[in-house]
Automatic annotation (TrEMBL):
Coiled coil: none annotated. The keyword Transmembrane helix applies. It comes from Actinoplanes regularis. InterPro entries: CHASE_dom (IPR006189), CHASE_sf (IPR042240), DGC-Regulatory_Protein (IPR052163), GGDEF_dom (IPR000160), Nucleotide_cyclase (IPR029787), Rev_trsase/Diguanyl_cyclase (IPR043128). Keywords: Membrane, Transmembrane, Transmembrane helix. GO terms for biological process: signal transduction. GO terms for cellular component: membrane. This is Diguanylate cyclase (GGDEF) domain-containing protein. It is found in: Membrane. Gene3D superfamilies: 3.30.70.270, CHASE domain. NCBIfam families: GGDEF (TIGR00254).
Amino acid sequence: MVRMAVRSNWRRWTGIALVLIVAMIGTAASWAAQRTYEQRSAAHVMDLDTNDLSQAINTEIQRYGDMLTDVAVAIGAQRDLTAADFAWITNTVSNRRLPGATSLDLVEDTTDAGVADLQSYWRRRGAQDLTLKPATTADGQHAFTILRRSFDGRHREAGTDQFGVPEAAEALRDSRSYGGFAVSRAYVLLTDRTLPVSQQQLSFRLAVPVYRTGNQFRGWLTMGVHGHDLLTTTLQAQTHGATAADLFESNGARVQTVAAASANRARSYPRSLDRIRRITIGERTWTLKAYPTEALLHESREGIAGTTFRVAMTINALLTLIVGLLASARNRAMSKVDAATAALRDDIERREQVETRLRERELELQRMVLHDPLTGLTNRAGLDARLAELVGQDTRIALLLIDLDGFKLVNDVYGHAAGDTMLTEFGRILRAGVGTGDVVARLGGDEFVVLITETPDEANAVATAERILAGAAAAPVLLGDDDQITVRASIGVATGRLADTPQELMRRADIAMYHAKHLGKNGVQVHDTALTNQDTEHPHPSKI
């Protein structure tokens, strides 16, 4: 009995010692796992944030360039540009989506001898207070800011000579030489040099050339951008305060800061978390350096709670296994049976859930195959199937090919989300303007089609098209906070013929639609023999 008691005590103390050993090993493993996970999590976030930030900066600058190009084309199309024309054209540019932008400027060049004439010319065209201030240049060439629209609420006087600033002069000459978008080196804008030094920040100037009709050079359209404001706004939008960053450019052997937004970088962290990316914009290359903030490190540490829980559960499982080894054979068997039963039940439930999701996904895919995901209208595949059923079989059909006018400018000014809103609202207008048996489809972009399935004649089809335009005019679309835009569209009409194919019917409607655009947009045109001859003799006008 004494021997059995000794053996029992020995087994008990051996088990306790084993439990303690496993607990210490588990604790050490948990600590190591926490540290590894924390560093990997922070590194992963830094990679994602840095990639998103570099792409966002590139996208923002390119978007500014596209906007400048569009406005430059509109200005160049004016035969006799006045200050009022410039104000009207630039009034469509919203500063809500231009972080860091200071002003939009029209710049024209002249020589020493032409300064007085240029000043007099523009005073006659509405810029009565314009006073040109030529800088001293080696070649006697000047580039004056003639007209200006301020974005930051500060009064920015026109008349400054951009050729007096080497960085701005270089960007203007590069833009004219390349015939396109150029970015200057970083410098303090002339209009900011009157501010206290503590309020001055490095900026850069974007420039595109302006050409009159006939490709005659007129001047430049430029925009000043505060580097710090652009970087901090983009940082907040992309990383939500988790990452700090600086933007640099190399000027020969000297590295210059374009924008600094690293004041809140963490004080102590592994330098392996720093990230560097190259951003190429036009002919200029910037270096983006990103650093973690205390917020990111804190988030990484807080995120370890889940890992700690999983490690603790693993240790508990090991301890449970040790306790289970001391239990009776019957209890072990019953536990295994219960576990197997629960696992089987869970497996059956998971299979049923998977089958339910698969059936739902199959129904959703069937719907998506024939419908446009944005507007809910029939897509090209659904339209093609309906055309194949009707075209060549029934002449009581008509095809309306619809293209929105000025849609690209809506995207540029208000953003793609606003563009999607306009497309969705126009789809609703189309559905309200046609019969229940007609097919309303979106081909993609801003192109729509209405297939009228029972129309007695061409006049009925034209009436339907005009009803659509009237419905659009009566229901302006709200974009942004308070901007209402009336949807305008060009519609081409083609009626069915017995010898038609779907492609032929679509082609005739396409010719009529482009003719409607050519005649002034927001109208309806019907395809006929004269239009067909015109199509073979003249190319389609460009979509705007």
